[in-house]
Amino acid sequence: MGKKANELSPLSVSRLVQPGLHFVGGVAGLALQVSVSGARSWILRVSVAGKRRDMGLGGYPDVTLAMARDRARQARDQVRNGTDPIEDARARRSALLAERAAALTFDECAAAYIEAHESGWRSPKHAAQWRTTLKSYASPIIGALLVRDVQLSHVMRILEPIWSTTTETATRVRGRIEAVLDWATVRGYRSGENPARWRGHLDKLLPKPSKVAPVKNHAALEWQDMPQFMAELRKLTGAGARALEFAILTAARSGEARGARWSEIDIARGVWTIPATRMKAGKEHRVPLSPAVVDLLRAVPKFAESEYVFVGAKGCALSDMTLTAVLRRMKRKVTVHGFRSSFRDWAAESTAYPNEVAEMALAHAIGNETEAAYRRGDLFAKRARMMCDWAQYCERQATAVAEVVALHG
What we know:
Layout: H1 10-14, E1 20-23, E2 30-34, E3 40-48, E4 51-60, H2 65-80, H3 85-101, H4 106-117, H5 124-143, H6 152-163, H7 167-186, H8 209-212, H9 226-233, H10 239-250, H11 254-258, E5 265-266, E6 271-274, E7 285-288, H12 291-299, H13 320-329, H14 338-350, H15 355-361, H16 369-374, H17 380-408
Antiparallel strand pairs: 1-2, 2-3, 3-4, 5-6, 6-7
């Protein structure tokens, strides 16, 4: 039991300025501690389980004498009931700090998710798209909410207005919200089911995206028309025309062709090695270069100030619109990506090459997990023969068409 001193009045307590511990009475063990600097605070000296403990009750004068005595009585009641008031207060403070640490808003979680993953994404543009879509659609409704409080009703308020009008964007928003909420769950910022999940949940409330906005394939040229098209294309000058020709003959995606660097190309060996960072599947891809492509590359001018094969303004890579502009000049209502379909149709309908060789040429991911696990090679030799045949088909037929036109004239 702490020492019970004479009960001091508020005025007497205010006059205690001598450094040291001054017991003020009223409650056993209650004292005003005066530091050398002059700061004053309340201390309750108690015995817990036979061990003396000094418990802080707050600073004076913010905590008055009456308030200090009330707190001291409550603490002594806890001791009599078998509770250590100091440990109890410490546990409550710890729980409060933990609760505050876990109280992140959706916007804070979204920012943390993007920061954690963007180094593994293909380009800064992908991260920018994440930030833009979440800021535009999710933030106005759930951005300021604690992530643990995001419910199905909030997700539906985000998706319903855009599900039928901008379906593709809406599906991306939904997937990104789901990813952020999953991240928050794993990190311990929320619990329970993810209200943005599709299978077995939102698919019961919203129509399938394909039913609302049927998937439209990229407009493609019939493979039988490729010779005539290539003959017309070769009449055009400029980096855009050559980049489009390069993309067609290699069956590459537009971004892969436009971003081709001289350091990736070994003309002597006839190989273009696209690094994983520039591939959609995130895996390095070797492209065999046919003699026609090698001739094309040798004719392309090199610029000392640029690493790119096809150089745009200020030494940068060509934009996607540059290749689209070439097609518009030719008055062709097709897309750059559509030429990959033209190549695929040619391989399927006009050759005996196995399906997997054509799919590998297009750098498509293997859908069958078992097949993917066992396939170690990239079928390079077979693809090299196929790409030569593709180039020869375009070149031979294009030449024949040109000759016929000349004779007719």
